[in-house]
Design brief:
The complex is a heterodimer.
Chain A: H1 8-30, H2 36-64, H3 68-71, H4 78-84, H5 92-97, H6 106-111, H7 118-137, H8 142-148, H9 158-163, H10 169-172, H11 175-185, H12 203-206
Helix pairs in contact in A: 1-2
Chain B: H1 3-29, H2 33-64, H3 72-76
Helix pairs in contact in B: 1-2
The chains are: A mainly alpha, B mainly alpha.
Chain lengths: 210, 77
């Protein structure tokens, strides 16, 4: 996990939370009369500082949850994160991971939703991941999980098309592209299918899936 | 609302806020899927509830003292 000590946002969150905690503990221990000053001090301790801590904590939480290492903190994801971070791997995930536009965020970059409410949808999907992990996969070995884990729905083409416009001459010069161009652009067929540029995580296809 | 009840509600709000802050700090120092999700959902829910308790108590106190709505002296008549 990234070192929180090097992150100003983490220090900001801790500072705001610590300041709020000092005020709250002061109130709980000293039990001052509920005059105007106490109300204002409590407003700072219960609302102003905690809201600041929540805001900075949220920003940091979103940033941390985009990191490949975060995805790999669930053991069943380690084969995927290890491969995509492997400088010697030739899988599509690893090839993209070596591109600095993806880098340490390569899981998020490809698996995020690029729709109008993409960030929210992606985060909701992340909540589902956590639910699925703790209810289904937490107790099983990753070898078994490799057989069982699959995407909730077929991989959409939208993430690919963020970078690959399908418009350059060299792209249109590939016969397979030409025949499927409209369907590719419409997202009806995917770039990452077997036989085209996929599978993205080939080792996961080598195990027998039920 | 009695003074004793107000004090209890405010102390409860303080304790709940401390719990919410603890969850936020946990997610910052140990940012795993569980800690981040809990901090962003339960942590902020608890914090919001605590703020609601504070607001409720302060508004009740302001009403009682006559700054808002009925005055205590009128209520006692």
């Amino acid at each position: 996990m990234d070192a929180w000590m090097d992150d100003p946002l983490a220090w900001m969150t801790l500072g705001l939370a610590g300041s709020a905690a000092l005020i709250l503990i002061w109130y709980l221990v000293r039990r001052p009369p509920l005059d105007a000053a106490t109300k204002v001090i409590l407003l700072i301790g219960i609302a102003v500082l905690p809201i600041g801590a929540a805001a900075s904590g949220n920003i940091r939480g979103f940033a941390v949850s985009q990191q490949r290492e975060f995805c790999g903190s669930c053991h069943v994801m380690t084969p995927y994160t290890s491969d995509s971070g492997d400088p010697d791997s030739e899988s599509l995930a690893a090839v993209h991971g070596r591109n600095h536009w993806f880098g340490e965020k390569n899981c998020y970059t490809c698996h995020s939703d690029y729709g109008m409410f993409g960030t929210v949808v992606t985060k909701l999907s992340g909540l589902r991941h956590v639910y699925e992990y703790y209810t289904k996969y937490h107790a099983i070995p990753k070898e078994q999980a490799l057989k069982e884990i699959r995407l909730y729905k077929p991989f959409a083409n939208t993430p690919c098309l963020q970078c690959h416009s399908t418009r350059p001459a060299f792209w249109n010069g590939v016969p397979d592209h030409l025949g499927a161009a409209e369907d590719l652009r419409a997202g009806k067929i995917g770039c990452a299918g077997s036989g085209c540029h996929g599978p993205v995580h080939p080792f996961s296809k080598e195990v027998e899936k039920p | 609302m009695t003074d004793r009840m107000m004090t209890m509600l405010l102390r409860g709000a303080c304790l709940l806020t401390l719990l919410a802050l603890l969850l936020m700090v946990w997610s910052v120092i140990l940012p795993g899927p569980l800690s981040v999700v809990i901090a962003m959902s339960a942590g902020q829910g608890i914090g919001t509830f605590a703020f609601g308790l504070y607001l409720f108590t302060i508004l009740a106190d302001l009403r009682r003292s006559g700054v808002l709505g009925e005055r205590r002296s009128e209520r006692q008549k």
